[in-house]
Specification:
By secondary structure, this protein is an all-beta fold. It is built from no helices and ten strands. The N and C termini lie far apart (about 50 Å).
Length: about 130
Amino acid sequence: MEIERIFKKGDRIFSIVDGWGIIESDNGNVFKLYVIFDSGVEKDFMWNGTESEFDCNSLLSFTEYTFQGFSQQKELKLPERGQLCLVRTYNTDWVLQFFFDYSDEMFLTQDSNGETYKWNLLKRITVLD
């Protein structure tokens, strides 16, 4: 049975049992994630956040648990409007553009003539003075 891959190396995650931690590795034989928690506890998890392939409920989340539930959706941190970023569609090279908006799961950029373009992928960049 194929396990859905939700988490990856470098993700900051929360466990109801162990609190906040970082995924240090995302490979292995049986368990695919190696997590080191802020408390110093180290544990292995499956790619979907369960402790074994037989568990039904994931213990890992991108947000702390609340009475309203929890989320396994990463928060999307968008650039500010007008900020330079790298964008591309799946079959093109990366292009430097000015960020405009995010709509319908597409990143929108706008050129100096007001022409709007849609992209699938975006990388934030830092411009050094």
